[in-house]
Queue: 4 jobs
Job 1
Amino acid sequence: FKKAISKDKFIKKNFKLYLIGTGDLFNSVQKFIKKNQLNKHIVLIKQLDSKIMPQVYKCGHSLICLSSSETGPTVVKEALFSGIPVFSTNVGQVKKIITKKNGKIIPVNNPSLNVNEYIQFLKKKFNKKKIKKNFKLFLNKEEKTLEKTLNKIYR
């Protein structure tokens, strides 16, 4: 990861990765960041108040979801609802909601994130307005209750 960041001038200049949440790998990720001196590029945040998540999505470029198992995942739906493209493992309903126009799906339990693939994903131009519009249309057809909830939170 460090090698990929240091080689790619576009990423080094334009991006900072914020990892939000805790999970089984939190401590090992924290050690990895420290060991490889990546704190200029990666910031770990254990928890955020859900009330500020709409602002977080507005500032974001993309969402990475590397879960090994999920039912939703809700975070992917929130990102798409906010117009944010998603790079996700194939968990839960991801296959149903992510397309080439709004993200990329990678296999679960990939031992290491294909960093070069993610860098190419970051460089791709996504139309955030279309992502948001198309996901709202999907929700209107498929998940009316979730649409109402998201509309209240992400006005």
Note: Residues 83 and 132 are 4 Å apart (CA to CA).
Job 2
Amino acid sequence: GPVLGTTVVVENKGGAAGSATGTNPDGTITGGLDGVAYTNGAPVTSPGITTEYGLNSTIDSLVIVTDPNVGTLGTPMEIKLGGSTLNFTNVSGFDIPSSVTAAANNTAVTSGSAYAVLTVGTTTGLYRINLVDGVATSLGAVASASGISGLAVSR
């Protein structure tokens, strides 16, 4: 992981991958994503392994970024709530607990859920999204969601 006092480039929309010494910024994501989160948040469990998941409100889907360095997306998985498509229009936060792990880079997990703050209609709420099948569970409305711009979860 990053060492205190060092600079880590997370995203650089202005340059090509590897264009700056010591950096390898992710490529532009084709199709766009409203929120991204990573598996394997506890580096001691699986050092060097992670999978980037994204949410796309245009197609109400969960997707794996299969090659973050060039922005390639995998097949979208429609997010469902009660058997119907969860039509969300905004993602205010998205995170995956550090205990959710992928066996290899850029591959799907076999179990685990992510959490997201989503706007559905006029209501913003907290949702748990199963990363294997895309089934969402509403965990309740979020009061005064206008100030929410991120979400972080623990294990």
Note: Residues 1-15 have pLDDT under 50 and may be disordered.
Job 3
Amino acid sequence: ATLGYLDSEITEFLIQDPSTTTPTLIDDSDNRLIRNAPEKNFSVSFDYTVPLSNSGDLRLFGMYSWKDDMFTEGVKDGIPEFELDGVESYGSADFSLTYTHNTNSGTVYAVSAFIQDAFNDEDGRVTYQRNIAGVFAFGFMQPTKLWGVELSAEF
């Protein structure tokens, strides 16, 4: 299990004053954000292996992880009611079941079934969002609930 807490802030961010032609620095820290730094996060997992009598084993793995809200841009968008510079908190439950077989020649075969974000019924999740100008923004969607089967061989 893991637990994370990040207490961070920008105390000073000096930039050239755009209102004057004389070289003058002003503190712009009130308009700055720390990117991709959720305040809280945690995960818990289990990993259980059952030896089988036929030179193989069965492994069950599961993990739940959660991340707090976070900003994806380093500058505030100026329109807080739209929240165009951040990503909402989210959690994900991931599981896999793997059968591994060891042959006499040393070759190892495995088949694994997995599911990521098992309990999420949404079509996707915004993982990055950026304000372009005013209320215009774009973001990247990441698919949720991904599942599949993997076959592998080690020789």
Note: The chain has a mean pLDDT of 87.
Job 4
Amino acid sequence: TNTIIDESSFDETVTITKIKPTNEQPQNKSNEEMIDEIKKKADLGDIESMKYYASILYHGYGIEMNKEESSKYYKRASDKGDVQSSFMYGAILYLGDGIKSNKYKSSVYFKLAADKGHIESMYKYAKMLQEGDGIGKNRKKSSRIFQTSSRSRTY
């Protein structure tokens, strides 16, 4: 692979996945050609390429930043069952980062990832339930999810 995944925090509870080029890039391909190749694979339905291309668009690595387009690729990957993409799309919806904020819809994607064991999504969904943030307040369900996520966390 020609990328390294690096996570950095942009919110106390949300993490964005970044793509950084490595020195392993073939010398005969430019960044532009590599990005075009990733986009073609993403457009053909390759989930990993969708995530990479979404991150490239989100951060503007080698191309113009386009958060709205990035959100579409995260959604497509989520719709194909990718847990991290469900979380990312939920975070983008929650923050309204490049698209209109929709906390209810965000909760749907956080729950989708949380139901598959994604710890950050469990936390975010439980917090939304606890506070009634975009969804109905349900402290009992929130508490149950917090307990599950704390038992699942590896320290």
Note: The longest strand covers residues 3-9.
